[in-house]
Each structure stands twice: as structure tokens, then as C-alpha cells.
Design goal:
alpha/beta; Aldehyde Dehydrogenase, Chain A, domain 1; 2 domains; seven-stranded mixed sheet; six-stranded mixed sheet; 23 strands; globular; binds NADPH dihydro-nicotinamide-adenine-dinucleotide phosphate
């Protein structure tokens, strides 16, 4: 890895991959530039892993899983390692936040929170380590008990949006359950996860228990998924990647958790606290430039509230400071890549040509100082029809469609008219209505007057938003498999009369 701007950020990344407790240079000759979305300049470059390096990472994780140095650790001792990681994340919070902001364009005031949340994930699952229990059934002449056992090597594939935090949630749960890891960050934003390896080392994880390999999904990611010694895949990413991973995992029948995209509906009811709901929808739709899987991107609102609600949102959106993600005053950063910005603006233009109206935003920001970056302002579209791509597809950027509804049943029907089912939002002060709506929403997560998840909240999708759950006690089921043991207590009766 060639370091350019990293020195300014007081960050010293060493090599391209962390395998078997050693830093190694990537074997693929074609170095990939890691770009800063603020100015599209390279931060550094990485030589991706070869198939042989991926194989080495999996083999060492496999061998370590069976090694007493790992397998012999009690659950609570694995928990202690996670507590130590949490401490070290907090100690190096500024380093991680700086790296993440440079790499992803997320403002540093947010990446500081993401690092702190990553530490909380470590602590939450550290608390679970050693508390994973099975069941017992008395069956008369015999009894049965179950053990929840680790899978072995977990292949974790992480996207570029908030990579540290998305890695941390699965990593912590997997380790608490006793698995060893091969982690692949996105080649678009791998820096914080590479830096994480130094913390793992310092915390005292046995060499080989945690391996980090970088490279694109279609090469390095595929090699991990298809490796016969990888016993479970945790994939967070887009629906297309999820399809590919499922297909790749077929040959080895490797179970996969898929945490995929969303197209979150927001239903605003008439009985709301107005200012709270305006602020809430603004956050759900535009926080972290809506490069957030659980962003709210389709707003449903009673017609009589439509005009004033949008005017109030637009007025507030216009005040959100955009700028260099490394500055503490910046609240909205650039989109991840120039290509993504171009594609999203293209989708907005297309919707306009099909009859939608751009209420605000919709174009690349060309303000002096921001024009080199991938900035897109909060964008609101009205007169959108359900057959338009902006209404149905996950754009993964700051574009909110607005549709008026007649009665609440119509709002629910429109909200559920999506192939996705990750997060839904309801704004109401009527507790019964809130629960009825939560009941009716076809999604894995419903937030009533609320936004955002945390370690304790099970998270995952319905429909094409995925399979499985991260966070909370549910995660302990994803990272363990059940062994059922039955013991005969009386003399065995043969089935043969011989
Ligand atoms: P991608 O699906 O493009 O990539 C996600 C990760 O998978 C990357 O590391 C990528 O590698 C890798 N990958 C891609 N294709 C394959 C493959 N065939 N085999 C193995 N690995 C593969 O998603 P993005 O990075 O663009 O992330 C954005 C998406 O993630 C959005 O759809 C978002 O909604 C979703 N997401 C879901 C979350 C959830 O919890 N449900 C949370 C956060 C994001 P590389 O990039 O190096 O090529």
C-alpha cells in the first residue's frame, strides 16, 4: 500500500492484507486506487489478494478454529478479547473516524459515532460470550439435549457504507460464538477494517483467528464464498451481489446471512407533532447522504399536509452544511463515487422526463470548494408514479419520493408495494394506530417515531431485503448451529427379532 494523505491523518497502515497474524502485500499486480470522495484523489492504493492468499487466509482460520489456542478458550475469555477491542477502538477513535471519513465521505461527527457504536457492538456481544445455552427434553427412556456450536470459519463480506460498524456487528457476534474469521471489506473503502487488524493483534487474538483480505467482490469475495472450508457467509451488500453470493454458495451448501438493500416507506399520519416529524423524516431520508440500507426513501402523506410539510423540509434541508467530511462542521458529505452520483442524477432526470417533478435538489453540487467531490443535495421528487424506477429501486442516495394518500389502508398498500422489506417508518402520536401500522408493514424492522438501530435491536430484511438477522439475541442463532444429542437411559431394544 502506498501511503499519501494518510500521514497527514496520523494513520499508518502497513500492508494490503492481514493473514495468519502477519501483514502481507497483495499478490495481484494491478494496484487499485482508494479514492477520497471529497476530491476523488487517491488516498493510497492496494494490491488485491490472489486466490492463493485467500486460500491461505481460510486455511489458517480453519486450523486456528481447531487449535486449542482458540478452541480451548472459554466463552468468557473470548468475551474478554472483545472487551479489549472495544477499549482499543475508543482509544484510537480519532484515527478510525478520520480514516472512515476520508474513505467514505461520511462527516467526522458521524464517523466518531460509528466508531463508538462499533465499540458498543464489541461489548454487547462480549456479554453474550459464555452465555450461549442449549435445551433439554426428558423423553422417558432417553433424553435429548442441544448444544449451540460455532460453525468454524465465517466469511464476512462487508460493503463500503459505514464499513467499520457493519463489520463490527457480525465480527463481535461471530467471535462471541467461537468462530474464526475471514473478513473482506469492499475494495472501495477498506481502510478502517484494515486498521482494525492492528487492534485485533494488540488485543491478543491468536494469530490466524482473524484474517482480513482485500480485493473486489467478484474475485476475492467469490473465492471466500466458494471455499469449502468456509462454513458460513455473512454478506452485507446490494441485492445483485446477494443473488450472486447465493448462487456461489450452492455448490458447497454454505448457509448465508444476506443483509441487503431497502426502499423504506415512511407513513406520516395527521396526528403528529409537526416539527418532530419534519426533523424525523429529514433524518430518515437524508442522514449520511442516504447511503444507508434502512433509509426512508418513499414518503406517504395526507394531501392536506403535503405542501407545508415539503416546504418545511426543503427549508431545513437547504441549511444542512455540506463540506469536507474531515471538518467538524460538515453534516452532509459527498456520495461514495463519481459514478454513483452520475447514476443517481441520471435516475432523477429520467423520472423527470417521465412526468415526475423535482421539488428540490436533483443535480450535482457545483459550489466552489465542493465541485471536485461527489456532492448531491437532498432531493425531493413529487408526481412520482409506482411504475417509475425512482419509486421502486434502491438508489442508495439522497432522493425522497413523495406520494399523497387517501386513507391509511391506501398508505399501507403503497408502502408494501415494493420488492424490498428492510425498514419502515411511521409517524403518529396515536399509540394504537402506530401498532396497527407496525403490524401491517411487510418489513423486518418498523420504527414508530424513531430511527436507527443498535446492538440490542434485531435487524434484517423481509422479501428481497435479505435472509437472517444481525444484532440482539437473534444474532446468536445466526453464528451458531444446533447439535442435538440423544442419550438412551435404558437397555437398547433391537428392531430385529433375531
Ligand atoms: P455490493 O453488493 O456491491 O458489495 C457488498 C460487498 O460484497 C463488497 O465487499 C463487495 O466487494 C462484495 N461483493 C460484491 N459482489 C460479490 C460477489 N459476487 N461475491 C462475493 N462478494 C461480492 O454492495 P455495496 O458495497 O454497493 O453496498 C451497498 C448495498 O449494501 C446497498 O444495497 C445497501 O442497501 C446494502 N446494505 C445493506 C445493509 C443491511 O444491513 N441490510 C447495511 C448496509 C448496506 P467489492 O465492493 O470489493 O467489489
Amino acid at each position: 500500500m502506498t501511503v499519501t494523505q494518510l500521514a497527514d491523518a496520523k494513520v499508518d497502515l502497513e500492508m494490503d492484507h492481514y493473514i495468519a497474524g502477519k501483514w502481507v502485500k497483495g499478490g495481484v499486480d494491478d494496484a487499485v486506487d482508494i479514492l477520497n470522495p471529497f476530491d476523488n484523489q487517491p488516498i493510497c492504493s492496494i494490491n488485491p489478494a490472489t486466490d492463493e492468499q485467500v486460500d491461505e487466509a481460510v486455511e489458517t482460520a480453519y486450523a486456528t478454529f481447531h487449535d486449542p489456542a482458540w478452541k480451548g478458550l472459554l466463552g468468557r475469555e473470548k468475551g474478554t478479547l472483545l472487551y479489549r477491542v472495544a477499549e482499543l477502538l475508543r482509544r484510537d477513535l480519532e484515527i478510525f473516524a478520520t480514516l472512515e471519513s476520508m474513505d467514505t465521505g461520511i462527516p467526522i461527527r458521524e464517523t466518531r459515532m460509528e466508531v463508538a457504536t462499533s465499540a458498543l457492538h464489541m461489548e454487547y456481544f462480549a456479554g453474550w460470550a459464555g452465555k450461549i445455552e442449549g435445551s433439554y427434553q426428558d423423553l422417558g427412556p432417553r433424553f435429548n439435549f442441544t448444544r449451540r456450536e460455532p460453525f468454524g470459519v465465517i466469511g464476512q463480506i462487508v460493503p463500503w457504507n459505514t464499513p467499520l460498524k457493519l463489520m463490527a456487528r457480525g465480527f463481535a457476534a461471530a467471535v462471541a460464538c467461537g468462530n474464526t474469521m475471514v473478513v473482506k471489506p469492499s475494495i472501495v473503502a477498506p481502510l478502517s477494517i484494515l486498521r482494525f487488524a492492528r487492534i485485533v493483534e494488540e488485543a491478543g487474538f491468536p494469530a490466524g483467528s482473524v484474517n482480513i483480505v482485500t480485493g473486489s467482490g467478484r474475485t476475492v469475495g467469490k473465492a471466500i464464498v466458494e471455499h469449502p472450508k468456509v462454513r458460513k457467509i455473512i454478506f452485507t451488500g446490494g441485492t445483485e451481489g446477494g443473488h450472486e453470493v447465493m448462487r456461489q454458495a450452492v455448490e458447497t451448501v454454505t448457509p448465508t446471512v444476506l443483509e441487503l438493500g431497502g426502499k423504506g416507506p415512511i407513513i406520516v399520519c395527521e396526528d403528529i407533532d409537526w416539527d418532530e416529524a419534519v426533523d424525523g423524516v429529514l433524518t430518515q431520508a437524508f442522514a449520511r447522504k442516504a447511503e444507508v440500507c434502512f433509509a426512508g426513501t418513499r414518503l406517504f402523506i395526507p394531501p392536506k399536509m403535503h405542501d407545508k410539510f415539503l416546504a418545511d423540509m426543503e427549508a431545513k434541508a437547504a441549511k444542512i452544511p455540506m463540506g469536507n467530511p474531515l471538518e467538524g462542521t460538515t453534516q452532509l458529505g459527498p456520495l461514495m463515487t463519481a459514478k454513483r452520483l452520475e447514476d443517481i442524477v441520471g435516475e432523477v432526470d429520467k423520472a423527470e422526463s417521465q412526468g415526475a417533478s423535482i421539488y428540490c435538489g436533483g443535480k450535482k453540487v457545483m459550489e466552489p470548494g465542493l465541485e471536485q467531490g461527489n456532492f448531491m443535495p437532498p432531493t425531493i421528487l413529487t408526481n412520482v408514479r409506482p411504475d417509475m424506477e425512482v419509486y421502486q429501486e434502491e438508489l442508495f442516495g439522497p432522493v425522497l419520493t413523495v406520494t399523497p394518500y387517501g386513507d391509511i389502508d391506501e398508505a399501507v398498500a403503497m408502502a408494501n408495494d415494493s420488492e424490498f422489506g428492510l425498514a419502515s417508518y411511521v409517524w403518529t402520536n396515536d399509540v394504537r394506530k402506530g401498532h396497527r401500522l407496525a403490524d401491517a408493514m411487510e418489513s423486518g424492522n418498523v420504527f414508530i417515531n424513531s430511527y436507527g438501530y443498535q446492538s440490542e435491536i434485531p435487524f434484517g430484511g423481509y422479501k428481497m431485503s435479505g435472509i437472517g438477522r444481525e444484532h440482539g439475541a437473534e444474532a446468536m442463532h445466526e453464528y451458531t448451529q444446533v447439535k442435538s444429542i440423544t442419550v438412551g437411559m435404558e437397555r437398547f431394544q433391537s428392531r430385529f427379532d433375531i
